Amino acid sequence: MQAGTCRSPAPGPSRTCDPPRLPAMTEAVLLDLLHGCCSDCPGLSWSFSDSHVFVLCGSRGGSGPADSVLGSCRSVQVLDSGSIAERLYLLKRTVDELDLSSVRVLTSARGLERLRPYQERLFTAAYIFTYQLRTEDTCPSCTGPAHPRSPGPPTHEEEVSRLVQQLPGLREPIRLLKSTLIPDCFGHGFSTRTGGVSYISTLSSLNLFSSSRRRDPGAVVMENRRRLALHAGFYPLPLQLVKVNHASDVWVLGKPEPQSYDAMVTDQPGVVLAAPGADCMPILFADPVSKVIAAAHAGWKGTLMGVAMATVEAMVTEFGCRVSDIVVAVGPSVGACCFTLERKQALDFLCIHPDCVPDPDSARPHVNIRLANRVLLQRGGVPLENIHDDSVLERPPVTPCTSCHPEAFFSHVRDGLNFGTQVGFLWIKEGGQAR
Question: Most exposed: 115, 208, 292, 419, by fewest CB within 10 Å?
């Protein structure tokens, strides 16, 4: 048998080949009997005793794994029912439960071609896939009629979409926070973490952002966004999410899109602007007179750089808004109760207002980034009564502390690097009128 190892830290067309190696205990092995191998393949003589083995096979007799090969494995799970998407999703869930990141796939070139698209949809670059291929002419059993080629193009996108749409919502139904300061000619909301299909604890359940460093794949996040859109009333419009740069750059829709920015402004009805947050502030801006909206992401760096007023200034400069007409809603974010910075960084906020740093003599002072943004907006001319944040007690709250409420919100401060993301979103309704 001639074989090579094809390492795939991120899906792509190129691969490098190394000699076969024994799996480590921190590795999962997917034995593809459906597309590339059979129980008689010489390659199965390699030891699987220290691996978690998953067997991808059909329901017909003769395609199952050989007991002599896999009998000594400490863990064997047969994936032989449902669509390929369902089987690989079960593989992913088990790999996540075992806290593994490395998956070695024993298959053929045809199997690689068929399985790779599912990997792209159901996994992220946080997983390292290694494809170990056999040549098509090595094992006569593998090239016989027991392994026919499936007719037609792969249907992985349809399979994956059907799979995630059938998943149950977790952590109760979707729940949104809404500001009574934003008039009804706009649709808007701040998402919470309930009602989505993400199952990993720190991402569960309505995670709305997929990252190569996290374990929530694009297909799951897109399903969460679809469910949010249906609940909020903007389906099938997609979320236009800011490309966070932790600065103060503002993109005016209709102009060339920058590579990164922390705020967006538009007067186009039916475009759903969204700003992410997981301690950082999603801030929504609306001018009911000029019918202009904006969304901004304000972390501590963006706050110091003035992203909130940069957004207001873009509304004024590009669309003729008056500052006094603009209303601002600050979404769920980390409070001064839970947010600290290195002393040198924290003391920069004293230049905005002394109350932004309640304990300036501490080695790691607490910082009130919400207050800092409110002060900067007021200095820029936004009336205090036009700002809805945690200082407003006469309206239903929209700015709870994300770190203090694990049942309702994601938090980087609380959950570490594998954190989920909620969003603030806003759009101009077609033909809508303010009450």
Answer: 419
